[in-house]
Amino acid sequence: MMMKMTVSVLLVVALLCGVHGAVDLTVTSGATGSAVVQAVVDMVSQSCLFKSDRLMLRRIAFAETKDGAEGFTQGGGIWKVL
Where in the chain are the domains? Predict the structure, then answer.
């Protein structure tokens, strides 16, 4: 019984440590980089807005801003949308 409780407590602590400090890059002003592009593409994919986009958003971000690289994203964000 004690072992089961200890394992449960350790599991909860591990989950909380993994979540602690997480930042939602999709709403962070001025965020750049591949992680931002991937986070936004994942959100759009999970919403099922486009059935089969064939990674179109990802390819546009790469073509327009070198995958959201800093210095390429001014004026329009990671997709250069004005």
Answer: 30-70
Position 13 confidence tier, pLDDT thresholds 50, 70, 90: low
Please check whether residue 57 is in contact with residue 79, taking contact to mean a CB–CB distance below 8 angstroms.
Answer: yes
pTM of the model: 0.59
Q: Please give the Cα distance from 63 to 41 (Å, whole number).
A: 15
| Spatial separation of the C-alpha atoms in residues 2 and 8, rounded to whole Å | 10
Position 59 pLDDT exceeds 80: yes
Return the closest-CA partner of residue 23 out of 39, 37, 46.
Answer: 39
Q: Among positive and negative, which fits the CA dihedral 21, 22, 28, 34?
A: positive
CB-based contact 68:30 (threshold 8 Å) = no
Contact 65, 79 (CB under 8 A): yes
